[in-house]
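About this split. The held-out portion is used to measure sequence recovery: a designer receives only the structure tokens and must propose an amino acid at every position. Recovery is the fraction of positions where the proposal matches the reference. Here is one held-out target exactly as it appears in the evaluation file.
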């Protein structure tokens, strides 16, 4: 199984949508735990890295591309 590549500042899609209706999250902290912020309502969630990797579907916008747009 291939490891999913993600980094700080990436906007990712998770398998389940947030109750606000958005399925896009921005990674704001990485370490043993991953903190991510909902792009719809700015709710912040802290997940253990193992649980985050299981729930990650794909990277929507890598951090480098997001900075170029702004």
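Reference sequence for scoring:
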């Amino acid at each position: 199984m291939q490891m999913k590549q993600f980094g700080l500042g990436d906007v990712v899609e998770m398998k389940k949508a947030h109750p606000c209706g958005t399925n896009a999250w921005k990674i704001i902290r990485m370490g043993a735990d991953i903190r991510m912020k909902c792009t719809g309502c700015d709710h912040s969630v802290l997940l253990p890295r193992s649980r985050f990797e299981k729930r990650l579907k794909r990277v929507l916008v890598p951090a480098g591309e997001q900075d170029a747009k702004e």
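Annotator remark: The chain has one domain: 11-61.
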